[in-house]
Amino acid sequence: MQAQCIPGFGTAKCTPWTAGRCTGAKAEPASPALPIWELVWEDHFDSQTCVPDTSGTLRPSPEFWSPETGYKRGKELQWYQPKNAECKDGALVITARRERQAWEKPQGPQCQVVNWDSIEQPLDNASCAVCAPPYFQYYNPCDLVRNDDSGGPACDCSESAEFTSASLMTRGKKEFSYGLFELRAKIDTRPGAWSSWWAIGDFDYVPWPKNGEIDIMDAFQRMVKASVIHSGESGLPSSAIQHAGARMIDREWEKYYHTWQLEWDKDFMEIRIDGEAILKLDLSVADPKRTSWPNPFTQGKKFFMILNLAVGGHSGGDASLTQFPTQLHVDYIRVYQKKGTT
Length: 342
What we know:
This protein is mainly beta.
């Protein structure tokens, strides 16, 4: 009631004003509502969640994470093993190490059969050789699992591995759909080092790429990349469709921790680094009318996370150019779900 509207100083638009009432031009619409996020899970990789092994070294919580063992994918050079991941100074540290030089020949066979009953399927050291470099065969017999609770491959090629590293997954333990996913990490993208934080659909035995893939952090060769992958019309891996965005970085950038986020709604995904969006995708691009297959990113389908440091492979680059070890440091991972809007 006591306000005055004086033309000038940017207030001329208020000229048709009377006491107690604003009768100016039609009001502008309010800004879009903002989501209200509720924390549903987090891992700070400290003594509250990590657990000591028999030697007293803190390891990632088995309640959240399952370590992978062996050569897994992408023609990568590293043999994954649990001991390359430890919780140290309040962070998860995954270390990739050079175990021997490429020209050093391992004594004895490349791979050895461990905890396998050959009555079920004949298996010997010679037939396991295809699981090691340079072949990297991933199907039978390399996908056979030991007859114990370790989850390791029956074809053990660890003694002949040139590099070792670690990969952790939340499959069957922590799986999520829509929400806000956040990681704070420090990376190394020298040639050969390939840090990743990604999610894979886990539903109805649907194979890749029909189950969908979300690469939130893909860091290699001075680049940080984000991508979303789904099936093409044929449904075959060779016709997978990738939507991606990336930015270049330098060694100074890698000295510090940075934050990656995935915001995933029923209609879109947006992946950000330090608050800057590098990929935003309308999820209708994966609808059946475009791909002939069900959209893996809608209807609340569950995805599990993988956190790993690979060596070489399709994207990592030439590891011979880098002095190892190299490390991936992860301060925390948090998952939020929307409980409403402002």
